[in-house]
Amino acid sequence: MHYRGPSHRFSARPGQLAVVLLVATLLCNGCVLGPDYARPDSDVPDSYRLQSPDVRENLAGELQPGAWWVRFGDPQLGILVDQAVIANRDLGIAAARVEQYAARASAVSASGLPVVSYGTTAGRRRAPGAEARGELSAAFAVSWDLDPWGRLRRDREAAGADLLSSQYGREAVKLAVISQVVTGYINLLELDRRLEVTRATLAGRAKNVEVFQMRLDGGALSEFEMLQVMAEYESAASAIPDIESAIAEQENALSVLIGRNPAPIQRSGTLRNWTQVSVPLGLPSQLLARRPDILQAEQQLVAANARIGAARALYFPSLSLTGQAGHASTALDALFSGPSRTWSFTGQLLGPIFAGGAIDALNRETEARNEEARLAYQLTVQQAFRDVADALAALRARTELIEVLQRRVQVLRRALALAGERYDNGYADYLEVLDTERGLFSAELALTSAEGARFRSTVALYQALGGEWTTAAPPANETPTSR
User: Of 6, 242, 283, 392, which is most buried with the most CB atoms under 10 A?
Assistant: First the structure.
């Protein structure tokens, strides 16, 4: 004997379905687990170290970004920067990373929307003692994962922050690449100047060799003095190959930065033709809102904070709704006839009972990652202030050093002229001339290095500030290009 219990058939009218959808909407607008993001406190100084007292008053207004490299007044530098922005491989990698996070954010955003799908099945079945029968069905299904605890919303928040982080990361890479191009070009011009000074010194010593050879042939000086002159000539000559090699290496490095194979780099001037600009600073607090690596670190913290809520939501049940409507028939010609229509509506509630501690572990991990991101953000802020302070100190020191070296070069040039006169008049031997000449050569090279270092310090300060930020428009011949 077989017992068949009472049969229950569920039928839903349009009004009932509307009530179900309304309840689902209310659930989706329910609570959101996890802490809301708040920017952590940072110890922001009132002013930059070694900053001039009048800077804060003059530049406390709204600051605007600009193409700072054009202010040096070298058109070829602008061409190189343009080429790097277009073709640099690191920038291309950073742009591709942004596209990845954009696609990921779109996918996460779509996870909270209803999913519509279709399906068809066909087959044959035979029961014992019966003939084989064909079965056909076609259906459309709609499924919707509701979000009563805000897990999907936290996932979308984290994905959006990841996307912003990648965009700020691209800007940080762009600023770094531009700074590397400008610094590399400065290095190249500095090497050009060193080569020019060395060749000029070599040419002067070559003339001395000719003069002393004639004197030696006439018996007016000893062979020892002649050997000293020749040794100084060879000393200057030996420096040229190293400088030429360094120039080639710097050109190769710049070529890679602008996205091409190693090749010579065209120049349109010298460092002596460059304009030394005054770098605007503004307030330290403004650095938090404009330096890309700080903005990137903050968005990483936003994402880590959002994932805490997503992890906490795993403790609670998930709710999904599924509806299906279609046709099923044992005959193809009856598939879409009246009695063949089918439909179903299902609600599913799933919650964890035992997960072996996996959910607890995931929550601890997200909280630890959030703490890591918070400390990384604060460290990035502190490092930014240090970068500005270091660049300001270096810029001031290089400026003072250049003034000292300029005076030294002038003094040694005068001393060399007097030493030559003393030697010609027989009041001193040629060692005095050689020592003075050697000191002048060294001072000129040191001055060249200091001039290059001052421009590199300026670039480092621009980079530390997140690029140029100034309330004043640049001169007409220094209009920034759009980037």
Answer: 392
Could you tell me how far CA 64 lies from the centroid of its own chain? Answer: 19
The pLDDT, as a whole number, for residue 164 is 93
Q: What is the mean pLDDT of the chain?
A: 80
CA 475 to each of CA 28, 182, 469, 470, 481: distance values in angstroms, whole numbers, following the listed order: 56, 20, 15, 12, 13
Please give the distance of CA 283 from its chain centroid, rounded to a whole number: 23
Q: Enumerate the domain spans of the chain.
A: 33-114+172-317+367-478
Q: What is the pLDDT of residue 474?
A: 38
DSSP string, 332-386: GGGTTSGGGEEEEEEEEEE--S--TTHHHHHHHHHHHHHHHHHHHHHHHHHHHHH
**CB of 367 closer than 8 Å to CB of 308:** yes
Say if CB 114 and CB 144 are below 8 A apart.
yes
233-255 residue pLDDT tens:
999 999 999 999 999 999 999 99
Q: Say what the pLDDT of residue 308 is.
A: 86
Hey, what CATH topology would domain 33-114+172-317+367-478 get?
Outer membrane efflux proteins (OEP) (1.20.1600)
Burial level of 337, CB count in 10 A (0-12/13-18/19+)?
exposed
Instruction: Compare 53 and 224 and report the one with higher pLDDT.
Output: 224
Q: What pTM, to 2 d.p., does this model score?
A: 0.81
